[in-house]
Write a structure and sequence with these properties.
The protein is an alpha+beta fold. The chain is built from nine helices and 13 strands. The chain has a seven-stranded antiparallel sheet with strand order 1-2-5-6-9-12-13, sandwiched between helices. It has a two-stranded antiparallel ribbon with strand order 3-4. Helix 2 packs antiparallel against helix 7.
Length: 339
């Protein structure tokens, strides 16, 4: 019950205990796993459920897969961990020599040769920015930097500072050419992929698992981004217990061949002049969020779920839910701090 306990570590322990009790049950940090499996027919081929977790992309990545043998399950998970680590190396903006950092430094210098994963994620990001009316936008880097500086100075950004930074933001500043090169059209524009990288990674992981012939898996990126393939034996899906925006739980979600993204406006926050400002910033106005909200979105794609969960926090509740209703196979939940 103590909130001081690291949930990722705790759930890793729980998943191992559950594994000994019942095959086919996964765990994740945000998620409290529920024991669902029951023994199947003895005619079914014997399969092995294997779980493991590692720290990557700034959080605990936990993976549960079902495969014909322990060796195949272990090999599949090692491949997924390597993929996550490679994408982190490419996408991070905290390493000055990462491929994305180099692209940001060359903003305004014309089309640049980039790794294929960068061209692909940026093309998807531009499409999702258009879909969400600009409320999801990976060119938010200048605004992120501005608010970090504001927190250090303990003073909110001035109008002139916001106007300058906003001029550098917008998906129209990104050009992805057919040959795979990328241009950030204006000097000073920078991309920050923190709002979509985990969902994008889940999509690539799903592709790798299916290519290996693995149809049952549960992959959780530290309490916020989840991929569920098929369902545990004897269940309709992977059941997870979601936190609410306060100190309780919002309810159960059942996932099957879906991705889940949970975004919170106050997942990280800074106090400036006695007021809390969340890490989620409206790319249209440049303003950081000041109300505690949590959004959960189920979608066929991890990257789409990530983009929509961010948009749901920024749009009015009516606008956000209308956006979700217009998307096939998408469901969402917006929770205020009072539940």
């Amino acid at each position: 019950k103590s909130r001081r306990i690291d949930r990722g570590l705790l759930m890793g322990i729980v998943s191992r205990l559950v594994k000994q009790l019942s095959r086919g049950v996964g765990a994740s940090g945000l998620i409290l796993p529920l024991l669902l499996g029951c023994a199947g027919s003895t005619r079914e081929p014997v399969r092995v459920t294997h779980s493991s977790g590692r720290y990557v992309m700034g959080t605990v990545l936990e993976i549960t897969v079902e495969a014909p043998t322990e060796a195949e399950a272990s090999a599949a998970m090692e491949e997924l961990f390597r993929l996550a680590a490679d994408l982190e190396r490419i996408f991070t903006v905290f390493e000055p020599e990462s491929p994305v950092s180099r692209l940001n430094r060359r903003a305004g210098s014309g089309p640049q040769a980039v790794e294929p994963q960068i061209a692909r994620i940026l093309a998807e990001s531009v499409a999702y920015s258009r879909l969400t009316g600009g409320t999801f936008d990976v060119t938010i880097g200048p605004l992120v930097d501005l608010w970090r500086m504001a927190a250090r100075r303990n003073r909110t950004p001035g109008k002139a500072e916001l106007t300058y930074s906003l001029a550098l933001v917008g998906s129209d500043k990104i050009q992805v050419s057919e040959d795979g090169r990328v241009a950030l059209k204006r000097a000073g524009t920078s991309v920050n992929l923190g709002g979509i990288a985990k969902g994008y990674a889940l999509d690539r992981m799903g592709e790798q698992l299916r290519a290996r012939g693995i149809s049952k898996a549960f992959v959780s990126f530290g309490q916020s981004s989840i991929l569920a393939l098929d369902a545990p034996e004897g269940a309709s899906g992977w059941r997870v217990l979601l936190n609410d925006a306060g100190e309780g739980f919002a309810g159960l979600a059942t996932l099957r061949d879906q991705s889940l993204s949970v975004s919170s406006s106050f997942g990280q926050w800074s106090e400036i002049a006695g007021r809390r400002y969340g890490h989620v910033i409206d790319p249209r106005s440049g303003e950081a969020m000041t109300r505690a909200m949590q959004a959960a979105v189920l979608a066929p794609s991890g990257a789409l779920a990530e983009a929509l969960s961010k948009a749901l926090l920024i749009l009015t509740p009516e606008q956000g839910l209308a956006l979700l209703e217009g998307q096939p196979q998408v469901e969402g939940l917006l929770i205020e701090s009072d539940g």
